[in-house]
Amino acid sequence: MNNNKNWWRDSIGYIIYPESFKDSNGDGIGDIQGIISKLDYLHDLGVNLLWICPLFDSPMDDNGYDVSDYYRINPRFGTNEDFKTLLEEAHRRDIRILIDFVLNHTSDEHPWFQMALRNENSKERGYYFFRKGKRDENGELLPPNNWKGFFATSAWKQVEGSDDFYLHIFSEKMPDVNWGNPELRERYYEIARFYLDMGVDGFRLDALAHLAKDLSFSDSDKEADASGLVLDTDKFSNRPELFAYLAEFKEKVFSHYDCLTVGEVGGEISPQNSLLFSDREKGSINMVFNFDTVWDNGAYGSIDKTDEEIRTNLIELKQNFKKWYDVCHEHADMPLYWCNHDHPRVLSQYGDVRFRNESAKMLLTTLLFMYGTPFIYNGDEIGMSNVRWEKPEDFYGDVGNKNSVKYWRRQGYSEEEIVRFLNRSSRINARTPFQWENAPYAGFSNVEPFERVNDNYKEGVNALDEMNDPWSIINFSQYAIYKRRLPEIKEIIDKGSWDILDIRHPDVFAYMHEYNGQRLIVVSNFRPYNVFFSFYYRIHDVILHNYDNVLLDDHVFTLRPFECFLLKV
User: E strands, 3-116, where?
Assistant: First the structure.
């Protein structure tokens, strides 16, 4: 294992959604032994850092992000001993493991919350936010305030048989914990030490932006929806108290281990404010995931739009990458990613299934050679895409979708409009079983899986068929990752300048790294049609290209649909 300081700067990350990665025991659900069985595949692909989504015990109301026991691996995924074996086998292959650590909430089935419900005088009661409801002029009991949660309902749930409510900004089965309580914080520090001592290499800190709340619990004065609720993230996102909690976490835990910490801070933070988290000198964690570069095709909140109106806003996408680079390059490490388990498939967002091969390779190349630590979502290396679902109930595997469908029906949207929107935007698209081969259930399992398999595995969109095709997406991915990890290329990317070429070009994403007289240029067409791009550099080497020949005449590239280059000039 490479033990150099800041080892994540040399890493290529890979995100595994365990439920849908590989089933080893024939129950239709992915598991830890399934991940172990594919470590050689991951090593050969070239990745050396795995972010594994939640493995803790959970009733799975929100796919494992509702934790009922932090010290126990969810039996559907295996045992604690299986997890230890995973760590050992991964480390033997020089692959590090980053696990999802849920800090904002627990399951309502967690012993802490169960005790809090049973005994109002218990210490566990102070681990959560309980408040009395208020009554209107008719005597009807209402929630303590008008806050709306992320899952389309009130952020408050009444405790049965009482006037008390508890706070949950996500599912009602996921009560928020009170990080203002010092004893609660110590409990989380103990959990972190437990896994770091076991050999875990770090954490992806889920919903980190939300740990501090507006403790006045006053109503939001922003515009309310038809139900009188307000989704006001100022009440529970990136509040000043959060940074004191994280500084203590670093002092008591993180600073004592060679570990990577990556926080999910969402779309409500600027690059400048992100340094409060991840500044190399003053920050408490190493990197932050933001959402700025994952929704620039207009799909988010687009229920009123037709599919034809959805189009990548490439100028905005380039500007988003640039604003993060400009602020963070000198001060913070950065993760790079197109999507994760909470977003639809990138190929169906920024690419095109009609040009699957070309757009998958283009998207990988564009992301992989920017400054930062790239994270590839499982399946992107073979060109997996969204499934075409048929009715709203098909999306109920995600509790957020279930609540949203109810809300949209009340707003008068048709079943067709709801399905159209969810087909392009639902995160359930990223959670379908991995397509390993052209065999029943795509080789994911030998029984019907927990979720529908995309039928295109029969059409060559599977790992085994692609391995046997020298021009496939997976073989291109393996070669591109190999190139990205070469010291001479990595040095140019890490230490050199980075400039976007023609940032106002509406169709082409082109950028250049320059260091010690060495120049690398990426040129990518984001459109399903030919576009033109002026090019005034002398090409010394075509390192990567997803077409057979080059169309360059009189300093103008003719770029075919989703054509891309990595060039040394």
Answer: 13-16, 49-52, 56-57, 69-73, 96-102
Question: What does the DSSP 8-state code read for residue 148?
Answer: B
**Could you tell me if 72 and 35 are in contact, meaning their C-beta atoms sit under 8 angstroms apart?**
no
Mean per-residue pLDDT, 121-126? 98
Distance CA 17, CA 23 (A): 12
b/e 206-218 (16+ beta carbons within 10 angstroms → b): bbbbbbbbbeeee
pLDDT tens profile 366-410: 999 999 999 999 999 999 999 998 899 988 888 778 888 998 999
CATH topology classification for 495-568? Immunoglobulin-like (2.60.40)
Question: How far is residue 77's CA from residue 86's CA, in Å, rounded to a whole number?
Answer: 12
Instruction: Give Dmax over CA atoms of the chain in angstroms.
Output: 79
CATH assignment of 10-105+182-214+233-477? 3.20.20.80
The domain locations on the chain are 10-105+182-214+233-477, 495-568
Answer yes or no: is pLDDT of 44 > 70: yes
What contacts 268, CB < 8 A, 6 or more positions away?
A: 209, 233, 237, 238
| Active-site residue, selected from the candidate residues 57, 232, 264, 398 | 264
Specify the pLDDT at position 397: 81
Dihedral angle of Cα 496, 497, 502, 505, to the nearest 10 degrees: 70
Question: Average of pLDDT values for 8-16?
Answer: 97
Task: List the catalytic residue out of 66, 206, 380, 381.
Answer: 206
Adjacency order of strands within the sheet including 130-132: 130-132, 164-167, 156-158
β-bridge partners, 206: 102
In 212-356 the beta strands, taken as DSSP E runs, fall at 260-266, 287-290, 335-336
| 287-297 pLDDT per residue, tens | 999 888 888 88
| Region of residue 322 (phi > 0: left; psi between -120 and 50: alpha; otherwise: beta) | alpha
264: annotated active-site residue: yes
Task: Please tell me the pTM assigned to this model.
Answer: 0.94
The percentage of the chain sitting over the pLDDT mark of 90, rounded to a whole number, equals 88
Sign of the dihedral defined by the CA atoms of residues 459, 463, 466, 472, in that order: positive
User: Which residues does 2 contact at the CB level (< 8 Å), separation at least 6?
Assistant: 10, 94
Check if 10-105+182-214+233-477 and 495-568 are the same fold. Answer: no
